[in-house]
Amino acid sequence: MTTLTLVAHALTPALRGLVLGGDAEPDPASIEVARGLKFVADDVYSGPETAAQRTADALGLTATIEPVLRDRDYGEWTGQSLEDLLAADPAPVSAWLERPHAAPPGGESANDLITRVADWLSDLPQPETERRTVIAVVHPAVVRAMVLYAVEAPAESLRHIDVRPLSTVNLTEHSGIWSLTFN
Q1: Helix (H) or strand (E) holding 96
Q2: What is the pLDDT of residues 144-181, one digit of tens each?
Q3: Whole-prediction pTM value?
Q4: pLDDT at 12 over 90
Q5: Given phi > 0 = left and psi -120 to 50 = alpha, else beta, which region is 78?
Q6: Residue spans of beta strands (DSSP E) within 79-176
Q7: Cα angle for residues 41, 69, 58 (degrees, 5° grid)
Q8: Strand ranges for the chain from DSSP E
Q9: What is the CATH number of domain 2-181?
Q10: Which end of the chain is more exposed for a tag (fewer CB within 10 A), N or C?
Q11: Rounded to the nearest 10 degrees, what angle do helices 28-35 and 50-58 cross at?
């Protein structure tokens, strides 16, 4: 049995301003909060974003950088605020927000993101011992996608899950089936 703790990375200016994608440095105050949190795990992974890596470091964890755990690919919309995108051309942005198969130009749909993280979960090595603990420090969008996969919720639900910086979610795997676990 594997227990996976997902840790949303520290606050960034992009998260604060609803800016899509990018690789911003985390907020120093949020990193300081992370230093006060304690986790123990057999294996630790981090998304490739600077904020994810710095958060793992602040948590005192040595993480393996896993490219598959990256934030959603926003294509041509990367680096732009949601507000600006909606003001400039609301129809494709609204479609992207409402339909999980819609993707930004050159980017990734919600369905693509969920499939990517589901594949990663399926590929996690099974424990050689009875129990294994894993931590993944990732972008909040990745946390949302993994939760939807675990509870078999439709991709349309992605926008209805709020994952705040430094929040945690636990998933438990048994015989290849992932479940949302509350402590």
Answers
A1: helix 90-98
A2: 999 999 999 988 888 889 999 999 999 999 888 999 98
A3: 0.93
A4: yes
A5: beta
A6: 132-138, 168-174
A7: 50
A8: 2-8, 43-46, 64-65, 132-138, 168-174, 177-181
A9: 3.40.50.1240
A10: C
A11: 40
Residue pair 154/160 in contact (Cβ under 8 Å)? The answer is: no
Helix (H, G, I), strand (E, B) or coil at 37: coil
Q: What percent of the chain has pLDDT over 70?
A: 98
Rounded to 5 degrees, what are φ and ψ at 175?
Answer: 55, 40
**Dihedral over Cα of 152, 162, 112, 86: its sign:** positive
Amino acid at 81: S
Q: What is the CA radius of gyration of the chain?
A: 16
Element housing 160 (H / E): none
> Which residue type occupies 16?
R
Nearby residues of 170 by Cβ (< 8 Å), 6 or more positions away: 3, 4, 5, 6, 180, 181, 182, 183
**pLDDT exceeds 70 at position 64:** yes
Counting residues of the chain whose pLDDT is more than 90, the rounded percentage is 78
Return the structure tokens found at 76.
């041509």
